[in-house]
């Protein structure tokens, strides 16, 4: 079974959680018709072989990027650039804009996604009062979701086929939880940590070229290149 099919099965079958603390709700982009269709086309185009990928993992998907496109850190304009037709809004999502620049600096989507899988520690969108929420924003939520986050990581490695020598964590705060997970599960030999794309776009947009170059450097190290 190709990498794409294993990934699609893992994400589309990933269960919704039981009721969460503090009014937080979760939904799966991979169980919604439009993002599931777009992600399926993306995966079959760029993950069609059997090669292991280096995991590049953020926190959990946002509703305006991954939540609509089905593809992590990818909005409508990025899908267009990768040759995938859609009816999504053409408004930019900052994290997607940054990751698109990284992919282009690597040489484009084909060589990039041949090396890397970009996703999340927890693969479902989390909302509170209609706004994006992170799995680590409240200790009770982290505790409630921890078994599912562990399951997601185990599946990515054992069933989907992530490379085990190294993974990449997006977000300094996220790194604390990723490292804890890795200590518990023993999945990756090394975790490289990068500042989150949204942080870089919000606070360091003027250093875009330098930050993209830093990403490319760290990704190359993680891939052993």
What does this protein structure show overall?
There is one protein chain. The chain has helices at residues 3-12, 33-46, 66-69, 76-81, 94-106, 109-115, 139-160, 172-185, 197-203, 208-222, and strands at 25-27, 54-58, 116-120, 125-128, 131-132, 167-170, 191-194. The protein has 225 residues and is α/β, with parallel strands linked by helices. A 4-stranded parallel beta sheet has the order 3-2-6-7, sandwiched between helices. Helix 8 (172-185) links the parallel strand 6 and strand 7. Helix 1 packs antiparallel against helix 2, helix 5 (94-106) crosses helix 9 and helix 5 (94-106) packs across helix 10 (208-222). The longest helix is centred in the middle third of the chain and has 22 residues, at 139-160. The protein is globular. The mean pLDDT is 96.
Question: Tags for this entry?
Answer:
225 residues; alpha/beta; 4-stranded parallel beta sheet; 7 strands
Concise summary:
With 225 residues, the chain is α/β, with parallel strands linked by helices. The chain is 50% helix and 12% strand.
């Amino acid at each position: 079974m190709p990498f794409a099919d294993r990934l699609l099965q893992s994400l589309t079958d990933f269960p919704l959680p039981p009721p969460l603390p503090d009014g937080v709700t979760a939904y799966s982009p991979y169980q919604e018709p439009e993002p599931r269709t777009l992600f399926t086309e993306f995966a079959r185009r760029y993950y069609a072989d059997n090669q292991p990928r280096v995991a590049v993992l953020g926190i959990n998907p946002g509703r305006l990027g991954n939540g609509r496109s089905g593809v992590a850190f990818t909005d409508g304009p990025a899908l267009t650039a990768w040759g995938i037709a859609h009816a999504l809004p053409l408004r930019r999502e900052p994290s997607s804009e940054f990751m698109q620049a990284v992919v282009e600096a690597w040489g484009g989507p084909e060589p990039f996604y041949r090396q890397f899988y970009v996703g999340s520690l927890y693969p479902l969108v989390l909302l509170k009062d209609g706004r994006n929420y992170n799995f680590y924003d409240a200790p009770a939520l982290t505790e409630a979701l921890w078994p599912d986050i562990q399951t997601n990581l185990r599946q990515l490695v054992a069933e989907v086929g992530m490379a085990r020598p190294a993974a990449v964590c997006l977000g300094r705060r996220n790194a604390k939880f990723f490292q804890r997970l890795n200590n518990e599960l023993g999945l990756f030999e090394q975790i490289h940590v990068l500042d989150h794309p949204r942080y870089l776009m919000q606070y360091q947009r003027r250093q875009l070229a330098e930050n993209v170059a830093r990403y490319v450097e760290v990704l190359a190290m993680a891939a052993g290149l």
